[in-house]
Amino acid sequence: MTTPRPFGRALCAMITPFTATGALDLDGARKLAAHLVAEGCDGLVLNGTTGESPTTTDAEKTALVRVVREEVGDRAFVVAGVGSADTRHTVALAREAEQAGADGLLVVTPYYSRPPQAAVEAHFLRVADATGLPLMLYDIPGRTGTRIEPATLLALAAHPRVVAVKDCAYDLLGSSLAIARTSLAYYSGCEELNLPLYAVGGAGYVSTVAGVAPRQMRAVLDAYDSGDRAGAVRLNQLTLPLVESMMASGLPGTVTAKALLDGLGLPGGPVREPLLPAGRETADGLLATYGELLHAARP
User: Where's the active site on this chain (predicted)?
Assistant: First the structure.
């Protein structure tokens, strides 16, 4: 069975660059998007958690999708995050993203209100019916408070525009069963599960860490696909210290990614409140860990 990959394999959850004064940095977004695609990203996921979607305006979200689409052309997929706690608002964002040139939509489970599964299913179907774009469902119960239950996923998979899942549920058995029983493309949203999920039929990943180490994250999948399973394991192990530093240090991935990007001279800029920037010691430690990965991963 061929694994479906509607948005490629190696996707980056891209940060939203801001200027020093906190305004949207569209020139920086162009530069960063071009860099990430040149470094091996098949797709860019905009306006997601890493993109600080809770603190960007609808107009900023649309402008970001438009300029990234213009910059990358047909060299990469552009997936627009349109999730919100309000179905009507999500539908409006979906339509704006379609008009701005997105290839697909990332739609998170409605949060805070904790809707029952029938309401979760109805929400996703409303969004799927609102545009002609394919959907990637975002299952991240640790943030939303609500799981997309396996039965709900099976029902949603019958819709022709529900094609993928960004999987942050930490349920490898449930994900494996869904992969076996549907044609949904499963993308790991948790870097420590990139290789395990890929090995059981996953499509690839949507990764925050790929925003600073795109070649190194992709190399794991490349090795696996070439038949070098031992090499894939070795390369995956090399990424783990950076994954741990960025994603399991007690700071949001947005904060650690922007600290690294700034240290590397790439567009990042400040985070928006309520997030706070990484301290100098943390930023220096991230740069040191990143440097160790570059050294260790050299052929």
Answer: 138, 166
